[in-house]
Amino acid sequence: MAFSVSFVCTGNICRSPMAESVFRARVDEAGLDGLVRVDSAGTDGWHEGDGADPRTVSVLTAAGYESDHVARRFDASWFSRLDLVIALDSGHLRALRRLAPTAADADKVRLLRSYDPAAAASDDLDVPDPYYSDDEGFETCLRMVEAASEGLLDAVREASERRAA
């Protein structure tokens, strides 16, 4: 069974689809495609059915990532099929933990930047919402996502190996 990771932000058009695209690329580069399933969702349904924000797509494309995305709202029933739920900021973390049907499900929720050793040493683990910012906000978001993706990949690889043992 594949190890399942879902990235969650507010509307599922900026941060979480960016994290999904970057992490999927890391999974593929590591030869783990088929062993790790990656998706994303939003805590709210404002943009359900919409594609990713054009600025997200632009930043991802410029950096060499693929982006084929349709926004959707996170559903509590998904916890049963997910191994990790990665929140992009502390507001998402709190919302997802409240939504979790069990304590074990709430324990699956982590902040993305907690996997970035440089960020984990600070008090601010939020990936700022670039929606109301300029292109630099989206580029900053991408840099934060990329910095955390390697540590997340290591954690997923380790958890997958423990599961297989």
Write the layout of secondary structure elements.
Blueprint: E1 3-9, H1 15-29, E2 36-42, H2 54-62, E3 84-87, H3 90-99, H4 103-106, E4 109-111, H5 117-120, H6 135-164
Helix pairs in contact: 1-6, 2-6
Give a description of the structure:
The chain is an alpha/beta fold. 44% of the residues lie in helices and 13% in strands. It has six helices and four strands, in the order βαβαβααβαα. A four-stranded parallel sheet has the order 2-1-3-4. The mean pLDDT is 95.
Summarize the structure.
The chain has 165 residues and is an alpha/beta fold. The chain has 6 helices and 4 strands, in the order E-H-E-H-E-H-H-E-H-H.
Overall pLDDT, averaged? 95
What amount of the residues lies in strands?
5-15%
- Report the radius of gyration as a whole number of Å: 15 Å
- Given the structure, what is the number of helices? 6
How helical, in percent, are the residues? 40-55%
Structural class: alpha/beta
Order of helices and strands: EHEHEHHEHH
Count the strands?
A: 4
Q: How do the strands of the widest beta sheet line up side by side? A: 2-1-3-4
Report the span from N to C terminus.
13 Å
The backbone outline, from C-alpha atoms, is: globular
Unreliable sequence segments: none
What can be said about the biggest beta sheet?
4 strands, parallel
